[in-house]
Write a structure and sequence with these properties.
Order of helices and strands: EEEHHHHHHHHHHHEEEEEHHHHHHH
Radius of gyration: 25 Å
Number of helices: 18
Distance between the termini: 81 Å
Low-confidence stretches: 1-8
Helix content: 40-55%
Number of strands: 8
Strand order of the largest sheet: 1-2-3
Shape: globular
Length: 404
């Protein structure tokens, strides 16, 4: 499909409307005269902040100045990937190669990038889809061949968009993911080694991070404690709304996560697209009550926000708290934001949570991933040896089976 091109330098009229009663209260809008029909057309986009609305308008203006129809500039990857486009993008492939490419499109590319306008897909967005430590394809334990085939499919789709004049370069040609793959594999093999040892250490970390932030914002302390005690990803903590908290049985239904995207942070479904329920332990219930009381009283209010009310991401938490500096001073050079999730799952495993329950709390697709948190402590190994010795002594001196 060829993108319709208005004359270079087409002028857009723009405006931003503030609708305070909506979850995304800033509506950015562009209008232009269709160069073919002469009719007046418009497109709009709802944003959470005014800065996001301004950024969207600037992107539309750049597209129009480059000769791209604003309708095409707004087209998401999912909308662009019609059967005709896929047919052109996949031409020349052998029949045996098609199934893994199509699977990559449906199972990985669309969930990770399908909601983004084609023109707003950057190399950084593709990097995050592949290598994000919380929700990337590598973290989901996709094999190297699966990642390679998926990227090859994305490259072909974006090449077609390049030919259609929607983009001016292919952002899917990323490098370095193989090295990242090796690092993530090491982490997945022994996630327990990345966990904090105990509750006092977690408190010390949370207090130090909050104290180092601008204005000593106590909200960062709450984010850290909540993430570790629920074994949640930072993006999932950011996506938590008041309606997701059940104070009758003290559980949290994890329904969404905040992720980075061109133009700012966005909310989307959880990794695996499945909601899950996690317990809220006694140690954080008072904090949860306080966070709810500090909201505007609506069910859709976010429980955890930055000091200016913005959404939280792992990068936002890192920069705002000077994470690397703080953890180095505390002697935890290896500690990353995702280590808070490793901490919670390790503690639950050590507390005796059955592996099938732990899998549901973690949201793991494979129980093999969950079992990595069950590696026994040195004391447990010693106890296992003592139990085996006792068993052998009983079998030697106790009642004997008679062989008939």
């Amino acid at each position: 499909m060829a993108a319709k091109r208005p004359p270079i330098g087409v002028k857009l009229s723009v405006d931003i409307e503030h609708l305070p009663d909506r979850p995304t209260p800033y509506r950015a809008r562009v209008r232009w005269t269709d160069p073919v029909t002469g009719k007046r057309s418009s497109r709009s986009h709802s944003c959470e902040t005014e800065d996001e609305a301004v950024a969207w308008i600037k992107g539309m203006e750049r597209a129009a100045a480059g000769g791209v129809d604003p309708n095409a500039a707004m087209m998401t990857l999912a909308e662009y990937g019609t059967p005709d486009v896929l047919k052109f993008a996949l031409r020349g492939l052998e029949d045996k190669t098609l199934p893994p490419y199509v699977s990559g499109w449906k199972l990985r590319i669309l969930p990770a990038l399908g909601h983004l306008p084609v023109r707003m897909i950057t190399a950084g967005a593709v990097d995050r889809a592949v290598m994000d430590p919380e929700s990337g394809w590598i973290a989901e334990e996709c094999s190297k061949s699966v990642v390679k085939n998926t990227l090859a499919m994305l490259v072909r789709i974006m090449e077609q968009a390049l030919r259609d004049g929607i983009i001016d370069r292919n952002p899917a040609r990323i490098k370095g993911w193989q090295k990242q793959y090796a690092r993530v594999e090491d982490e997945l093999d022994d996630p327990r080694s990345l966990a904090l040892p105990d509750w006092p250490t977690l408190l010390r970390l949370a207090d130090a991070l909050a104290a180092r932030s601008a204005g000593a914002y106590d909200g960062w302390r709450d984010v850290v404690l909540f993430a570790a005690c629920t074994a949640a990803r930072i993006g999932e903590v950011s996506g938590c709304r008041v309606r997701d908290i059940n104070r009758n049985d003290w559980t949290w239904t994890v329904r969404r996560q905040t992720t980075t995207a061109p133009g700012g942070l966005v909310d989307k479904g959880t990794k695996g697209k499945r909601a899950r329920i996690v317990p809220l332990i006694d140690e954080i219930r008072e904090m949860v009550e306080r966070r709810i009381a500090e909201t505007d009283g609506t069910k859709d209010a976010r429980l955890f926000v930055g000091p200016r009310g913005g959404r939280v991401s792992t990068a936002v938490l890192r920069d705002a708290t000077h994470w690397d500096e703080v953890v180095t001073k505390l002697g935890f050079d290896h500690l990353k934001r995702h280590s808070l999730r490793h901490t919670g799952l390790t503690w639950m495993a050590d507390a005796g949570v059955p592996v099938h329950h732990l899998q549901k709390i973690a949201g793991h697709g494979s129980i093999t991933t969950t079992q990595r948190y069950l590696h026994p402590h040195r004391h447990a190994i010693t106890d296992a040896g003592a139990l085996l010795s006792a068993h052998l002594r009983q079998s030697t001196h106790g009642p004997q089976l008679r062989v008939v």
